Amino acid sequence: MKTNNHSDLLYRSLADNLISLIEKGTYRIGERIPSVRKMSKQQSVSISTVLQAYLLLENQGWIEARPQSGYYVRAKISEQAPEPEISSPAKDPSRVSLHELAMMLMRDTMDPELVQLGAALPNPNYLPIEKINKALTNASRLHAVDGHRYIIPPGLEELRIQIAKRTVLSGCHISPNDVMITSGGLEAIDLCLHAVCRPGDIVAIESPMYFGTLQTLEVQGLRALEIPTHPRDGIDLEALSFAIQHNPVRAVIVISNFNNPLGSQMPDEKKKELVNLLARYEIPLIENDVYGELFFGEKRPLVCKSFDKKGLVMLVSAFSKDISPGLRIGWVAPGRFKTELEWLKFTISASPPTLPQYAIADFIESGGYDRHLRRIRREYARNIELMSSAVTRYFPSGVRLTRPSGGFVLWVQLPENVDSLDLYKKALAEKITLAPGHVFSATNQYANFIRLNAAEFNYSIERSLEKLGTILKEIIE
Ligand SMILES: Cc1ncc(COP(=O)(O)O)c(C=O)c1O
Questions:
Q1: Residues lining ligand 1, CB < 6 A?
Q2: Residues 6+ apart with CB under 8 A from 270
Q3: pLDDT digit string, tens, across residues 341-364
Q4: Would you list the domain boundaries of the chain?
């Protein structure tokens, strides 16, 4: 009894000490605290005492355990800005016209003078540059002649084998023949839409929606039907079902895991319901999973495709967020639309770049990709945490903020009277760029929202967020 009381006191006092160190800022949000072994040595207490203390701190929301990595200080949820509510976009389909705004944002990404909080670019320090360059060199040596040939659709078999193997982790059972390599995710989405829609058709999308996809709808002359979407668990199925019953919807597009810009992740049961709903109406689903590998939790989330019995789901992904946006390698598992997609791909651009396909296949097969992903998942989780806490600290009260469990973007709702284009212009004068909410809707639903790229967090970015907070307060006053 005595011993129990004693160890009870020990772990509680250890936990209290740690809380006070966190409060004083000795251990900062996102930082790793000493490992269990190290702490046990440092404090001359048993491993089980430290484990008990860490469990207590975890339950109280002070720290979180990250698999194979250790314990990290968390931003306390109660201290974070509240989440935005579910969106309520216009109920009628609309043509898209966003090219001017989109081109303006695209030009910003090329300006090295700007602090880049706009485009959803991966952190260049988290790309496996050296390893992939080495794999490219190897590929050019091993495939000196082949490396300069077209590889006609469906693309390099070695890479398709690696992709098919990885999709097992997201719940799929697809063969290498069910995969087609594309020039990035954008091309894959473009091809999917081409295969199933004609100009003027209606495509139901989550709202807000990544503006690259809105651009594709614009180019193909399609109409967007925006569906209410929850910032945590994605598209509202009741609203989608209603929309389908009242409109001739030709296709649906979702980013089921770590939506851009919402960060939402559809629960598995909801993914299944969505697939079943669309199967009843024979409507194709284009599932964009480019962020699926960047999860912060224990397990790779499933994809809608894993519930697809009719071949109606076209699963799209790319290596642009975790290996290299510039290599331009994406892929699609097109289900029953395989023949159309291969024909379209061949007709439009014949082949994706050849050497990058060899290099990526090699990088995955060697185990390098998995090791790399384990590292960057932790880094992105930390940066999201740090940026969320900075936004809460520096932005005026009344802002709302998403809580992504993967990916690297944050969606911020500003007070009603703030026009994010106005904020964008004022921020640009201070050499900061961001993505105004206007570009995430065909019907301008998000004028008082911005998307922030949280891929990177450092001193200069923190100062830029502070500056944005000051500009916002001036706008509100
Ligand atoms: C949701 C989403 N899909 C696709 C892309 C583009 O992918 P890729 O560069 O492979 O064409 C992006 C890039 O921002 C994205 O956020």
A1: 120, 184-186, 210, 212, 255, 260, 288, 290, 318, 320, 325, 330
A2: 233, 234, 237
A3: 999 999 999 999 999 999 999 999
A4: 2-74, 79-87+375-476, 130-369
